[in-house]
Records
---
Amino acid sequence: MKKSFSAVTATCVLLAATAAAQTPKTTFKFDFGPGKAAAGYQQVLPSAAYSPTTGYGFDFGTTVTGTDRGGKDALKGDFVTSKQPFYFSVKLPEGNYNVTVTLGDAKGPASTFLKAESRRLLLETTATKPGQFTTHTFTLNLKSRRISDTETVALKPRELRKLDWDDRLTLEFDGANPCLAALEITPAPTATTVFLAGNSTVVNQDDEPWAAWGQMLPRFLKPGVAVANHAESGLTLGSFLGSKRLAKVLSVMKPGDYLFIEFGHNDQKDKGENDGAWKSYTERLHLFVQEAKKKGGIPVIVTSTSRRSFGADGKIENSLGDFPAAARKVAQEENVALIDLNAMTAKLYEAMGVEESKKALVHYPANTYPGQTAPLADNTHFNPYGAYEIAKCVVEGIKANKLGLVKFLRNDTPTFDPAKPDALATWIWIDSPRSEVTKPDGN
């Protein structure tokens, strides 16, 4: 028996509604504050706490207040702010997105410091005068564990709580008086992606006072390129492969995307018959490069950051054996770009000096760990200042190799000489609410 026209229509409507419900929303326009919402924008009141049902809201228990200044411009007439850092999250599927924030107050001064996800630096302190507004756009990457219907990335337990691996985009607003007026999110499927493969010197660290250069790199990039940081503390080339992180990267890599590869610190600990700088390390580096090339990607080899290991002559001693030399040789043999971060960070530490260079790395106060009676310096892991300086070294490496990424460097990116580091006293970082004294995995 044939269905009636009305029955067929109802079925089609039901199917369309079901499909719409299963397709996640990826475009948002938010107008913050208690005033009238601008046309085409979703109003977000200070009471909008994040929930999976709404898919957006202020997150992790942080709260804001709202102010309505009135006026003809509905979008800029109101805003939300807080005296404490606050998070705003939006549920989104994996991919690259253009994220635009409008900051300012029609009748008062504002000052905002912006991070995303696991403390990726987007915007250093940005002040506006009363009546002044500033708009900034960033291209951000969101990743998921899924590789295929049968494969997922094998995460470490500590990664399960990381903002980089959850199901939403989270922005962290810090500053003396952050005034958020509007936020827009749109997919950016054609954006270039810079994938990072590495260890604790590269990873996006969630907690203060830890940091690595990968999470500082977005600050120097214009819209149109996103950093997808797949590094994790304690990893070697082998464990990056074994946890299926390279498979994940390759599953989403497009022709023209980049793969920056920095390993060595933890690879030193592999002591098997076929391990070592000139054996498994070299073989795996070749594999990473060749697999990226097969996908049309652009591999970039990065030598391991130097440890803060001064000799009696005040010079940095090589504590990484043959690993930096092996990385240089693979880059030469594969005819790919090399960023010699090992040499640049040695120069950086030497310029800072034996004592001042400690201020670029994490310190453990006395009694942090059982049996520890005196302050202890971590000579491998950076604090935000050290990570920022090393990210500047990476930027210089991008320039020196004349990579296509040069056109995406922000106009306010200064030339940097590792022999002339920024003075710590002139550099400002606003701490995130989350902190942890436990040292990340890795040596």
---
Amino acid sequence: MFPQSSISTDSTDGHTAPDKPALLEGPIDNARLVEDLQDRRVGIKIPYSALAHLVASFDAAVILFASVVGTGLYQILANSGLDHLEPVLGVGPVAALLYVLIGYSTGLYDLRAALAKKRRDAGRIFAQWTLVILLFTSLAFLMKSGAVYSRGSVICFSLLAPFLLVGWRRFAKRIVAGVVADGQVKGQRAVLLGTGEELAALGLEELLGKYGFTEVERVAFPAGRGGGFAMSAGEAATLEHAIAVARTRGAEAIVLAFPWSDTRKVELVRDGLRISPLPVRLLPDRRIRSLAGNPSFRLQNSLSVEIQRGPLSRAEQASKRLLDIVGALVGLVVFAPLMILSAIVVKLDSPGPVFFRQKRNGFNAKEFSIFKFRTMTVMEDGATVVQAKRFDPRVTRFGRLLRRSSIDEVPQLINVLMGDMSLVGPRPHALAHDSHYGRLLSDYAFRHHVKPGITGWAQVKGYRGETALVEQMKGRIDCDLWYINNWSLALDLKVLLLTCLELTNRRNAY
């Protein structure tokens, strides 16, 4: 925990860097402090989500050990030897599997609800073990294999295992508490946003131990209840600062620490964070946490509310990324001769570089440089970018062919391999266009909830090329949002197939 008395203020930017998260009003940058503390702590950084699986694995190992010891002791005492152990030792793996599966389903391995709590789990472990033995005996009866097992060995194993599990659980709690306190556990990277009072009452160890988050920075929301149905200028600036910090620091979530009684702030912040693709969780306030510390409180003390989930789960992100990598590699191999020929002709057709690079906004509005074959005589990449029009004089002779056939987009397979883009997703626009349409259309920023794509649902629906009218851009955004809300691998494959057909139509390609 941090000492309470050390708070330094930088008068140049109005930010404070507290040793203890006791905060002044306004945006707060204690990222350097957090990183310094983490750097001082040595040891292997264990993912917080992996701790539960490690504890479950050791539970299974304890049960296997108990089966070997219990069976061996009975055989030595009863038979003065170790004969016919194979059938009996098979009980251990089955019992371990049943115990772990039941434990996951009942929350026995929820670190925030079980291991982090200062409560005795002996009764729960004995009850769960009794259920395992009942299930095992039922299976043995149904499969008519009960005669194979030594009843004495099974009884010894059944009596020994729960005591070993209780002892191991107490030891595991100490280990988990120790590695969390020593900074050897890394949670989900999060930006902490809340009122000064709530942030001051929430330490780094509590944030990690109870909720599984590692703080990368905390931002204090302006004090005062305010009024009306809109944010004040200060509140809006603070929210924008928090979103920018989450983007630049690579945060995986945004965590809110507000009094639950202040519904206005919670609702306004929730609505304001919709433009961010990161999941958002609301932590219990100080009063709720104090109730959760009461032994008679029946709810989990890790109670938190997910008020926004990420557009894609980790498994969905992994499957989409795998499709992107495989598709990009295959595409680069197949189109390599065409790319080489196009590069040569571009260079001979007009003066200038082969590739056109321009800044675009990607996932979570992070900037990246997009690759295209140069098709115009200009290289616009600033505050003003003029869209290509039909019969645009800036388009070169060979560039017109590249644009109509979409061959100029093939180098973006490199962007896909680099992870800046996906094969399928909302088409990225120039930064100037993002700024312009972002002011005109409230839903425009939602396009950044997923990676931009070489092709997308809007393109196969005919929204391709120039968007001279706001209505045309709105139609494109509606298609993009539908794609984000209905994503699946099958949809990506469908879009890729429809793109091949759309290229033959050459609608709005100029």
---
Amino acid sequence: MSETVNTFEAQQQGRPTGPLVRGYEVIIGFETHAQLSTASKIFSRASTAFGAEPNTQACAVDLALPGTLPVMNKGAVERAIKLGLALGSHIAPRSVFARKNYFYPDLPKGYQISQFEIPVVQGGAVSFFVGEEQKTVRLVRAHLEEDAGKSLHEDFVGQSGIDLNRAGTPLLEIVTEPDMRSTAEAVAYAKELHKIVTWIGICDGNMQEGSFRCDANVSVRRPGEKLGTRREIKNLNSFKFMQQAIDYEIRWQIDEIEDGRKIEQATVLFDPDTGETRAMRAKEDSADYRYFPDPDLPPLVIAADWIERVKADMPELPRAMAERYVRDHGLSEYDAAQLTQSAALAGYFDEAVKAGATPKLASNWITGEMARRLNAAEIGIEAAPVKAQQLAQLVKRIADGTLPNNAARQVFEALWTGEGSDVDAIIEAKDLKPMNDAGALDKILDEVIAKNAKNVEEYRGGKEKALNALVGQVMKASGGKANPAQVTELLKAKLA
């Protein structure tokens, strides 16, 4: 329902500009449909389970057949309250449901029950990082509504099928101000919102099943000019496609303007096979839907004590957890944000620290080597072969000087591949203990100095980088067992 994004030009005058694309500023606003994790639909007892045979989970209430009346699902309201609490929004003590009138084959009753003038969640913000720069996107609203059915085109020649199982599925539509200024910001915002709704348990976040899908309103303008005409890219159900679709749409709009053509407001679809967006229909505004209060539903009244009860059951939020990591563990805001990308990842870090790992070292390994391997294997932290207690044991051996970094990576490799399960046993089996024989190390130093006269001369001539080359040679000759810091100090003494 992107008509809500149409009224914010006045608020944009003081907003920061982003990186220009061919001399144009990009303006992006988002509407996200999060399917709520209730077992039944928003106004009926029909199941919301995914994957059932078509038209087996749509009851008479979902289709508004004569003699039926919708009844509000309390669980859906509580999930809306949770989102409002998580995003610092105002939760309306009284909100109203309306009928949004339009005809489409997968909406046989001819209207959708939604909220319009008074939504249940108002305002709020989502903060996130793009690289190491923190951004904040303001929210307009989040309102409760029912989903429509689904048109199926693939399995029918020359005709379409209609599956009404989704009709009446509870949704929260989360609408932003047009605050985003680049594709990177838009994707980062969507990922952060996805993290929040799954963290607090109101949505399973499954994008392939349509549980979390985004519409991006995109326009371009010359810096300082009024907002350009927007086009809405519908139903983006992967972060990869989201990036491709917005990038293409930006290029397309600039090309149209540069060629002297006007941008027409429209709803567009992204085709992942061609990488292009294409217009589906002229975009409607709110007046086209002829909203009026639903006569079958009384106003939704949320008492203050209900909000307090929901608040008491909320988990620690990612932003609060990140602040705790900065305060208690001395981590940077960026590292803390990386560790709170999911509840499972934060739990892994907490477990490692509880097992005795130095927080900063544990953070470095989780966001570095661990993240690299998880991405390569396309698995989550829950499926990591290296358990939190094992990582803690590894980090403790690094901290007490038992393992130099190169040797630590060998131990991590053995843990990851299942070659071993105990850090100390792997260290013994691979003979990775540091070199403690001062005589042997001194001999290696002398040999390296003798074989690398050029580096020695450069270092004595003031080139500090030459010392690093010498340290590398010593580490290589010692099989990675020497302590790099100790080697550096000994070399400096010998070359003084």
